[in-house]
Amino acid sequence: MTDSAPLRFVLLRHDVPESFGRASHWDLMIERPDLLEEHRLATWAIESLPLEWIKVLALNQTEGSDSVKAKQLPDHRAHYLDYEGPVSDDRGEVSRCLSGQAVWQEHAETRIMVQLVMEWPLSLAGTLNLGLENPGERLIWSLKWVGKPQ
User: Fold this and answer.
1) Global pTM value
2) What is the sign, positive or negative, of the torsion defined by CA atoms of 59, 28, 12, 2?
3) Using one digit for the tens of pLDDT, what is the confidence trace for 51-77?
């Protein structure tokens, strides 16, 4: 599937209370070209970021990898593209860390490829490759970032 119209994406830091049931994490949300309704953001929770993203965000983290695990979540509402603040039902707070444009290159049952052009806070471009870890269980994906020189 190739769609030339640029869509939007956002990377949010989701800080959760201890009672939440899992640790604070990152939420990667990418607009889906095949959905027009309010819940149109394909969403993954990521515990650790790709190494190049760690460098861009100047995080105090010395270790990382270009390939990380991502847990697929239900599609989220489009308002999260611009939202920062508390999440309903005492589920913590989100803050925007990266955002920009996305162009879907492939969207298959076990593989997704999306070109991302990060526009805020810094410029960074590349391809995000997601591969389903276990096709029998549709939740855990391997996320690999292949950056392009700017």
Assistant:
1) 0.89
2) positive
3) 888 888 888 776 677 889 999 999 999
| Cα–Cα separations (whole angstroms), residue 83 to 45, 64, 70, 148 | 17, 27, 22, 28
Contact (CB, 8 A) for 42 and 30: yes
Place of tokens 């861009």: 56
Establish if 2 belongs to a structural domain.
no
Residue whose tokens read 């105090």:
60
Does residue 63 sit within a domain?
A: yes
Residue 44 in domain: yes
Domain membership flag for residue 1: no
- Give the total number of structural domains in the chain: 1
HSE-CB at 23 with a 13 A cutoff on CA atoms is 6
| Structural domain span for residue 124 | 7-148
**Beta bridge pairs of residue 113:** 106, 129
